[in-house]
Amino acid sequence: MGEKEGFIKYKREMPASRSPKDRLNDYKEVYHPVNEEALNRQAARCMDCGVPFCHQGCPLGNIIPEFNDRVYNHEWEEAFHILRSTNNFPEFTGRICPAPCEASCVLGINKDPVTIELIEKEIGDRAYDMGFVKPRTNIQRTGKRVAVIGSGPAGLAAADQLNLAGHKVTLFEKDNKVGGLLRYGIPDFKLEKWVIDRRVAVMEEEGVIFATGTEIGSSIRAEEILRQFDAVVLATGAQQPRDLKIPGREAKGVHFAMEFLGRQNQVISGELSENIINAKGKHVLVIGGGDTGSDCIGTSNRHGAASVIQLELLPKPPQQRTQLNPWPEWPMTLRTSSSHEEGAERMWSVLTKEFTRDEQGNVTGLKIVEIEWKEENGRMQFFELAGTERTLPCDLALLAIGYTGPKQNGLLESFGVGLLENSLPKSKQYQSTEPGVFLAGDMRRGQSLVVWAIAEGRECAVQVDLFLQGKSSLPQRDRSHFNNTEVAEFNS
Amino acid sequence: MNQGLYRSEFEHDACGIGAVVNVKGNKSHETISDALLMLSNMEHRGGRGSDPKTGDGAGILIQLPHNFLKDVALRAGFSLPEEGSYGVGMTFFPRNRQLYKKSKTLLNTILDELDFELIGYREVPVDETVPGSGALEVMPVIEQLFVRHKAGLQGIELERKLYVLRNYASRQINTTVPGVNLSFYFASLSAFTIIYKGQLRTDQVLAFYKDLQNNKLTSALAIVHSRFSTNTFPNWRLAQPFRYISHNGEINTIRGNLNKMRSKESLMKSAFFTDDELKKLMPITDGKFSDSANLDFMVELLTLTGRSLPHVMMMLVPEAWQDNATMDKARKSFYKFHASLVEPWDGPAALLFTNGKTLGATLDRNGLRPLRYFITSDDRLILSSEAGALPIREATVTEKGRISPGRMLLADLEKGKILFDEEVKATVCESKPYGDWIRNERLKLRLIAPPKKLAVPYSTENIKKRQTIFGYTSEDVKVILAPMGDTGYEALGSMGADTPLAVLSKQSQHISNYFKQLFAQVSNPPIDPIRERMVMSLFTRIGEGSNILEESPQHTRQIHISQPVLLNEDMEKIKNLESKGYFSHTLHANFVSDHKPGRLLEALDRICQEAVEAIQNGKNILIISDRMCQEGTAPIPSLLAVGAVHHHLVNEKKRTKAGIIVEAGDIRETHHFATVIGYGASAINPYLALETLLELNEKGKLSKVLSQKQLFENYKAAIGKGLLKVLSKMGISTLQSYQAAQIFEALGLGPEVIERCFKGTISRISGISFDELAEEVLVRHHAAYETENNTLETGGVYQWKRRGETHMFNPETIHLLQKSTKNNDYQLYKKFAEKINNQTRDALTIRGLFEFKKSISIPLEEVEPVENILKRFATGAMSFGSISHEAHSTLAIAMNRIGAKSNCGEGGEDEIRFARKENGDWERSAIKQVASGRFGVTSNYLTHAEELQIKMAQGAKPGEGGQLPGHKVDDWIGRVRHSTPGVGLISPPPHHDIYSIEDLAQLIYDLKNANRKARINVKLVSQAGVGTVAAGVAKAQSDVILISGADGGTGASPLSSIRHAGLPWELGLSEAHQTLVKNNLRNRVTLQTDGQLRTGRDLAIAALLGAEEWGISTGALVVEGCIMMRKCHLNTCPVGIATQDPELRKLFTGNPDHVVNFFRFLAQDLREIMASLGFRTVNEMVGQSNVLKSTGHLNHWKWDKLDLSPIFHKVVAPDHVGVHKQIDQDFRLKKVLDRKLIKDAHPALEQVSNVKGNFEIRNTDRTVGAMLSNEVSKIFGSVGLPDGTIQYKFNGSAGQTFGGFLARGITFELEGEANDYFGKGLSGGKLVIYPSRNANFLAEDNIIVGNVAFYGATSGQAYINGKAGERFCVRNSGVEAVVEGIGDHGCEYMTGGQVIVLGEIGRNFAAGMSGGIAYILEYNVGNINKEMVDIDPLNEDDYLVIKNSLKKHVALTKSNLAESMLQNWNSAKTHFIKVIPVEYKEVLRKRALEQTKSLI
Fold it and tell me: How far apart are CA B1316 and CA B387, in angstroms?
């Protein structure tokens, strides 16, 4: 373990971020690089707990104390192997994960948690710099073929694992480049896209075939895929955005956040020359208080918006955890992202009533009313506060209020997958109602985090492997290779 | 007898012994009557069952009284030939008339067959009104058999024939007459001695046997014995004396001794017995008999085959010779030689032995039983467990002494003299040139030149794969191996084990995990392997065994190995010794890995057969190796292979023909070594562990890069220390006697495996067989060959891990428990309980496999209220010191609020907590613990308790002591523990006043005297046999017995102890309840249990298995904020619980309200279950185990074969036998001497006026002063009375614990002598002792005080005009004492106070001494254990201190010795040296420096 009293001696320290003024001029990463000694001290704060809650908090089951210890001892290669054993893409999660691990870090009970995510990012990046990431080209092939549909984090992880298991994997992607929401949803200032390219190159070298620009149904039909492949993994996400059904919604200048963010990323990568949704000089309203909302703020400010206001239906969260939301639960506290630091007004407990328009149909404002939340009949309910109605000026409204589920584009139906009432596909152990067709990521569980998507991809791959071979040597999150099966082989 | 969990083989006994001898051989009846009087004065050392008239057994051995017998024979109608030409059998026939007749007929036939002639039978006259009803029911028909040999043999020759007759006849009759069942028995059959014994109380022997009342019955010697057994099933033959020995104590190594004896039998040949006779004698030893009886069998065999009695005693019970540099060479050679014949019969033992012509006494190497002797001017030698048991006129006493550890005393009646140790042993040792034989024949492995180049070099190539094959996890490497290589020590851990048992685990298990280490508890003491290292040894040997009945140079032809970890170099040495006559053969331990049934068994058959063939081909070293495994061939677990080969060879009577060495990839940690050695291996080459260490070293994973030599030395040292700890916790001193001793309980192994490989091992709930064991191996095989991974599997045993082993407390359950209790949310608690219950149902614990049967439920309102149930809770013993004041007092407040009990743990309690706070809260712990360190145990402390708990063992580290490092002893803790801040504190493994069950009875009695209102609670840890121990404890009059699960927590303990010692409470509790009911003792005691109890369901199951109270610790700590860091031993607890760091303590957020919520939830949860099962009260529920059944759907192949029915077994008890606590123990405190002392002390207690008094005292007056001190403490608290307020003078022989816990202001002056535990726990009082003014001996040369004086004393003064026994001032923390000589281990673990010794000191002085000062005479310097102390010259201050003390000593005791020293002070003073602990000196120096600074 790190240093016995490291957590007493050292304080949490994050690398400095570039000044907002500076970083608003570009879409580059917000943080300065961290030096090794500083990182070593952070790793020394890890207490190597008897019950490492972080390890439970991480959806991937990252073995956090162990890699912290290796980083503390400057053993980068081992640290990488430990991290890699649970996480295919630490360079992604190290940048964009909300870090539930840190929320559940035991130090967080009464001090600031260990900078786990930062350490993870450094391990991920240094593994490339120091040459530990070597394409595995000696994989024994099984002769089985697997199609993975969707190249977001779930699809990528599933493909990576299945390839490792020896299957021939083809990854189908409707867009021109690999990455899904990683590439087209997350702004560059949070995840520069060379990070994805770097990973994809390795996977290609390892034998994964990337069929980009290939949309199921148009470029290739589902039946064709089912015919050519021994198994299929569907991982096209939960991309159906939740709409705001209020009068005036159809006004020009009211967009889903992803339209705005996705285009921006394409502009930066050169796929598009300009973003037709531009915030420059506009009064921007971001509706929705989550991370996507934050991304909209950051992007709007980089466009040069006149003002940015973020609206949230829920009340302002407390600064500290409450007794009903204790450690190690996910803290329902006020979060301030780097985008917030760059300038935005935040409003809580507001209900949107109606978009106002000018004659051309352009949005001009948003009628809102303040609300109060009360517990009634055991449920929290809101009540409008009379006399608080007003209209906020608005030239551009971005809706960042989540997703309802997979796109209703017939993809699932074309593979014969049965659906639940909430439009999510039915599944059991990642297997859909159609034999040989598996599901992973947001598509299966609904809108979630990148880290969950990777976890889904990994666990799904095990089930695919079992389906194809009857056994699997792929690692699982909650099961050691030393686990004995419930039915001994000699009995069967 | 063996239904349920109880097994008759678990029974223990312990005793009082004594002898009276006329050294000149003059026979008299007085010798007999004196011995019987002595016996009745040791009644308190015997035991009584539920029927007070039925004793545990007592008896007497005397010389054959020829004249008496001649007379009575004539009256019976036959005449006896001359003395020495006939034998007399004291014969116990079955009571049943039919069986009696059949037995007698067969006996007569056998007499004829063996060339004996029957002279006659005489009915022994007895008074049947004497024994208790239980004893009477099974009383045998007792007759004397008179025989002579047809060839007219006499004396020793006749004796040999009688020996054959006795063995052969007993066996034939007991085995061939149906229904006899061991009820035919010869108490004695000899031409020299006769034994009168039975299931009697000590005072019943004389009344019962009318012969003994006859004045014509004479003898020159008599041995008496009083038994205290852990059971109450009457059995006449278990009484002692036996034919040659009387034993007080316990043979810890008995199982190994018996196993090895079986192999030795095959080699036996004797000039004194024909082969046919030898055959009739076999088996010599027999597991059906007690340890003492078997030792007696050995003594008999070895003396009748030509050795002298002292010779035999020396070879069977050797003194500690290995590390004794000062021992005479011839003697050392004797022991060395005999070590290659027979392994020590090791254990606490005071032994009296006789053949009718000589009578001797000896003590085990540790000196763990008391034995005092007196020599008188009228030629008598009197030996007894206690001084004063036989009143002797002081004027006739010429010498008073004690038998010291390993020493011997012999009265030779033919020569008419007494021989002391040196003389007796010199004669024996010089009888043969043992030294020369050894020098010529023995080979020392260490001295053989290593090979230039290793044929099989170390390799770290491909190591991950090989590690995986053998089940290594990254945890094993990091947590187990790295620290051993790095530091030479095993790693410590903390908290308890909440992982599943091996058989319940879903992770592939190392086979050693199925074995739990047994440990000493109550019936015998563990040893301190660090501070008493000198008695221990790791020596081992390989080679052929020989005929133990003879002695020759060849007997010593063996390879000697100094410790059992072999390097590859050593293996090659061993393989290349053909020129020296050692031929090795390698058995490849592997099997085909195709999952086909029977593969493993087939492989075992192969190696067993190969082993026999190899031996037939002249090989004498068998190497069991798993090196040859590869894909398709999996290794046989080494332990399984060793067990199979060992037992096969034992069965084939070939075991002694070859030594077994193991070359194993699967052996890495201490427990692995312990099991493999415990089942027969001599030494082990853990090649993969060595290679793993090399890899760690190469990769820079250790704190610094080490040389290969150093690295391996460290590992060997760590394993060695670990093994010593494992041995010592069972009270075994040498690896040689541990080897093949099988001191384990198996859990989850089926009968086929046990019978084949681990025969004789207890395995009570059955379990898996060979195919399942193979499957465990194949899981690892598969992981190694069929998965790709850059890292080892994670393990998750010592730390929770997602891919690792399951833990009951994991992030989810900890969170639910904390949140529910914080928010007082019962529904959320239910969620927690459901998670825990589901987890356990998924087989984390044995109770997880239980289910409640469907019952008729009752409405919840009818169940007794929560408030009633709350009183039945206790929190566990956690000391202030191991946890912070905040954490400790929060628990206390919470428990006091709900009328439950918190436990102060072993660390005293700050007196400021004794008073209630203004808001009504109370920080006082209701339970005060009395543990082996006795920290802070004063009269006042004991007075402020509702319950006093004697901690015999702790779940996490049973059989081990503890240590609080100096840096943790801050001012506060130091004050509370009555020790010096900054000085480390050691808790010894044993209570030094409990080496045996009758000692525990004494401590219970002490504590009951010290606080009559307190319940006495004895804490035991679950293991096989805990039920019989509990029965003994109930008979020793404890009010409460706590059966602790082995999974309980700790502040610090070696990891292997946390995991591998002891068993879950389900087994122990159930066994205890069953055994107590069976013995009708259950209604006298409250049963309590603890160990990972978490939910109402756990409580319900505990109640159904017999517990009426529950202890909960970890759960309560988690409610206080503990998040199971498992770092308690590092003082870095981040939530302020297990730390003394003021900054970290501030982070504590625990709250008594939350703790109260938790206990209310538990009670409510329990009530709901009670309602569903139809129980209105807990009392109704206790022991109703028939409500439980095993869950019907065991869903794992490993669990299928478990048989849990022994746990549910409900003992059928008649209506009058209560099954829960109903009757109070009767301590008979109404008439004790202290009542008189208190009455006379009224002026002092009421007005603080001075009082004086004179009293007569006897050895039966025990614990004098404790009750008086209790009265003082009640009124005056720890301050006590002004010095000398109460001054009492006593005359006579004081019983045990004279002046126990004597409070400040009381002075006791004793003219006479005292027994063990003089001044135990002295709490400020003053003790003065000197010999009778009528005595004629020199005080300074004679013993006046017994063993273990001033144990745990905290303050006061003592002046002793004479010598004291072993362990003087052990754990003294403040008493100032002057004494004129002491035995071994003086001032052991002392932490404060001052001791002046004016004469000799024994060996190992100042071991573990961390504080205080001792002034001793220079010539003793060689006996000091210098590990922790400096020897400093004296300065003027020192001289002044000594001089003043001597002056007081003279004034108080009239000591001649001190007087003469003072007269020649200038010369006398130069002979003193000062012994001062290094750590203590440093603390004093710092303190002085600070004082000087503050002056400036």
Answer: 9
